[in-house]
Amino acid sequence: MVQAGCSVTDIGIVDTPAVPFASITHGFDCGIMITASHNPPEYNGLKISGKNALVISRKNGLGELEEKIIRSSFFPGVPGRL
Description:
Elements: H1 18-26, E1 31-35, E2 45-49, H2 62-70
Antiparallel strand pairs: 1-2
């Protein structure tokens, strides 16, 4: 994300409510938590939220994000992308 020009703030290892709290408190445009959650051990999951900690789901943009990643147009020119 940094290589793609995004500003990233690492808030460390925290519980789930800390990400939306930090997003709102610091006025971040979005928040992303990497989580193992309910996935098998070899996989990670992402909890993604937008402005004001709005949870991003299939109803409001997750499908569009997935398509951009699949088409490799989300972070053009960044090594290691999908």
